[in-house]
Amino acid sequence: MKKVGIREVAQEANVSTATVSRVLNNRGYISQETRDKVQAAMKKLEYYPNDLARALYKKRTYTVGLIFPSNVHPFQAELIQDIEYLLSNQGYKVLLCNSLNNPEKEIAYLTMLKKNQVDGIIVGTHNKHIDGYKNTKLPVIAIDRDLGKNTATVSCDNYAGGQMAVQLLIDRGCKQILDIRGDSSIKLPANERTVAYRDLMKKYSLESHVLEVPFVLAADQKRQIIEDYLGSHPQIDGIFAGDDLLASLAIFYLETHHKKVPDDVKVIGFDGAKETLLYNPRLTTIRQPIEQIARTATEKLINEIKGQKETDQLKLPVTLFTGHTV
Amino acid sequence: MKKVGIREVAQEANVSTATVSRVLNNRGYISQETRDKVQAAMKKLEYYPNDLARALYKKRTYTVGLIFPSNVHPFQAELIQDIEYLLSNQGYKVLLCNSLNNPEKEIAYLTMLKKNQVDGIIVGTHNKHIDGYKNTKLPVIAIDRDLGKNTATVSCDNYAGGQMAVQLLIDRGCKQILDIRGDSSIKLPANERTVAYRDLMKKYSLESHVLEVPFVLAADQKRQIIEDYLGSHPQIDGIFAGDDLLASLAIFYLETHHKKVPDDVKVIGFDGAKETLLYNPRLTTIRQPIEQIARTATEKLINEIKGQKETDQLKLPVTLFTGHTV
């Protein structure tokens, strides 16, 4: 389909392109008759003023790239939705870039966003060794990811979240507590949860059990790792899971292997996305302040776009959602 | 932040803009020395060839708008993710537009997409009375929505899905089966599920019970409607829910009101998104062929962009996911 430009409008209205341009910009003298003719032609041909041309001229596209692993994972999905909502209220469009935990895909998106002159990027991926965000002049805000001192990062207070979860398990009598965490070789704010776990194990003289389940694995692989571990460690009576999916996988394994949750094993998750709790209101979890993370990241990005450099490393407060699994 | 153009690159390399342009387009004679100087300047200034300028010139943006109610609802989230993946493999970018069931927001997105010269739109919203998709020259493909004979629609075989679900409940001995459905005043392919339900109730001489829960309501309102209904209709022994959220809400109500699922009441959902089944592997549901819907809609959209008009109303086959709730 050929797109309609002012040339086609001018032809249809039988006027010059300069006249069409004057009508569009409300500039110079135009008779009502000519104005009506041009507007009728625009309507007939479905002409819309070209925001692309304007963006090129003004060197501002009002477009933001969101690079996240997936818009399906409930925490990221809610975050993306909140960010898209807030940005659209400020007149920004959102290009959705699901990296699917593929570093090559992430690098290709980054190049595409730069070629398309986006005004800024919000990134929340967990891939290692992506250099394109550092030392770029493009405004970039990170969520749950450490891109160095020069890039602002927004995350929840992971240490406080870890403390809250593990203290609850201890208070409810758990003695053999398992911490299911992500890949420890990636530098992420979430690593603080395990620091909190270890501090509490030490404080209460409890044995540490840490199981690494890399975030980037497929769900079936995650399930297998958890099942293998729980199958060979029947003494575990409490689980602090790195996210609600890991918690759900553990609960399903336990319940289909004749362990009652919470009577025999207590399980607490992390994230607490609205959608997760709608479908799984029984789950006890640490809720991240998703709307607040989205709002903070969006505000900081817009500040950067307007020329104010942001470098804060912010930690926003978490809360406990009391379900029926602890 | 001021964006870098070929003028800045020319200045940095101390050559003319025409020379930069020749390097970029690999045209005309350029000495290796000049070429190296220009490329060094591009690297230093982080210059990326401007895809916006190219789009404007070629009248093709390789951008597609996705207008859906939400990227959080598991079915739509998976659909959006699959479509984004398929389109990105074909060199298209995706503008994410969550209408949040707000008709004004939907209309504003539609105008924004037209102004930004997108090559096409895939729409899966449930708002009434939005005329902007009809009689437009822009390629539009609908998913689960009827936009008239001129627009191709892709959906699952809703009648077969309804039959499969209700027949299963009947086979398992249910006599008082409730159909929880969306707003019957909207013309949607999903309405066929209730047609299948009524046909089976008639065939087996069973009493019909239909509860409307509009899709656009907030989750708390949906929960309230379901709880009120089930509270005042204790005879219900089988539920065919319009989606997995409605099924989950019903199951939670029943289980917290001393009814066992599936012993006392059997419940079957609809959609069966991967993420839902990861978190709720106990749920019995009708699975939509999400990947196939995404692939078909994407192919049809690209065909339309290339000039081949698509008007099929396609119904893709569903399958039963056997959990533990029927």
Automatic annotation (TrEMBL), chains A, B:
Span of domain HTH lacI-type: 4-58
Statement: the UniProt record of this protein carries the keyword tRNA processing: no
UniProt-recorded name of the protein: LacI family transcriptional regulator
Family matches, as Pfam families: LacI, Peripla_BP_1
Entry keywords, A to Z: DNA-binding, Repressor, Transcription, Transcription regulation
Matches recorded under Gene3D superfamilies: 3.40.50.2300, lambda repressor-like DNA-binding domains (1.10.260.40)
InterPro entries: HTH_LacI (IPR000843), Lambda_DNA-bd_dom_sf (IPR010982), Peripla_BP/Lac1_sug-bd_dom (IPR001761), Peripla_BP_I (IPR028082)
Highest taxon listed in the record's lineage: Bacteria
